[in-house]
Amino acid sequence: MTPTDQPPPWEPPYAGSEAEQLLAALERLRTTFRWKADGLDSAGLATGVGASALTLGGLLKHLAAVESTHVPWKMFGDSPGEPWDSHDWDADPDWDFRSAADDAPADLYARYDAAVARSRHLLAAAVAQDGLDQPAHLGEQVGRVVTLRRLVCDLIEEYGRHTGHADLLREAVDGRTGEDPPREWRPWG
After folding, report:
1. Which residues contact 173 (CB under 8 A, 6 or more apart)?
2. What percent of the chain has pLDDT over 70?
């Protein structure tokens, strides 16, 4: 096979273990979402559709928060870091969506990319060591066993929903459509 015959790096394997398939499905959704949000200025990141307040900038910041809370904190009990630690989520649960309009595009992309990189590293190491059946830190908070598998599935669901939103938002910005990024695509910035 030549390199162009190889599937792109975000394509899930045609055969593999459950963990390989779940992590690859998550990675494909992360990549597709990032492509949908890629390369926009403040105006593009602030574009909405219809009556919805959702924007690609808001989704970038929200998914950075999701990555920072689901993997480091819910899975392993580590701090999600700033700005997530100091925000009062009970008083302002939509802050991540709303406040993204105040952030520079480069900051939104960097925060999202850093959160994904941290999550990817922590999750890969944990799955390689003890698999998806290991208990997550969240279980201690809710008083029952919660496994990494459950939280990986939650991440897949979260990305599935928001990647669908990103499809509509990006098309409204500049007409970009498509299921997957082009083979040669890599994140801007």
Report:
1. 40, 44, 47, 56
2. 97
